Amino acid sequence: MAIASIQRYYLVFHRTFFDKYIIFFHYVPLSFCVIYPIILYSFLVTKYSCITDFVYSSWTCGGACYLYEPVLGSIDWIFNGCVNVVLSILATSLIITRVLIQKCRATTQRSIWNRSRRIIIQLVALSTLYMLVWVPCVICFVITLFRSVPILSSLYSSYLSYYQYLSSLLCPFVCLAGLPEVRRALNNVKPLNKQIVHDIRQVAENIKNQHRNCLESDS
């Protein structure tokens, strides 16, 4: 998400520069996002010199053993978790701030907003979803890193650890909601006609009365 936010910043404000070096700004980061976690966690989970005792009744079977080492587990959380959240917040805030400043300037500057409105709205929506999911996890981790708080540890293991999956589940719906075609289709959906609603209620009432009459006749 951090790389996507940075890419959209260059795509909005430095489009020519971005297109000129698209391999460096687009394809290389995407390849890195795919290759880096595969190599890193394949090594840490399968090759790192520690013994993992899996607990099959726990979340993620108790986790890999490297997570329970203070130094390595903290480094993994800081660089692969906290840094991503911080960069996403900074990049998104920078885009919003710059758009608002330039929107208040000359009319020629407002063309940036008109041209890139879809990208900006989608970025803000995705970043908001990402931050709502991950910021509570990062806050719990940072607090427990410096001080033992059992209630936060219990909160993370019982709720926030599953809360992370919401970003993956809701991401497609957020992307669809950012498409103007989808918004127009939703706006064109008309509520049920009052007469149709009345007819449905009348049919339900008739069925209910018939059922009551059958019960009375049987008795």
Using brief descriptors, characterize the structure shown.
9 helices; GPCR_Rhodpsn_7TM; 219 residues; 81% helix
Task: Explain the overall architecture.
The protein has 219 residues and is an all-alpha fold. The protein has nine helices and no strands. α1 runs antiparallel to α5 and α5 crosses α6. The longest helix is centred in the middle third of the chain and has 40 residues, at 107-146. It is flat.
- DSSP, total strands: 0
Strand content: under 5%
Biggest pleated sheet: none
Number of discrete helical segments = 9
What is the typical, i.e. mean, pLDDT? 75
Radius of gyration, taken over Cα atoms and rounded to an integer in Å? 26 Å
Instruction: Give helix % range.
Output: over 70%
Number of domains: 2
Report how far the terminal alpha carbons are from each other: 67 Å
Q: How is this fold's topology laid out?
A:
Blueprint lengths: L1 H12 L1 H6 L1 H25 L23 H34 L3 H40 L3 H14 L1 H13 L2 H8 L6 H25 L1
Summarize this, please?
The chain is mostly helical and 219 residues long. It is 81% helix and 0% strand. The protein folds into 2 domains: 2-188, no CATH class; 192-219.
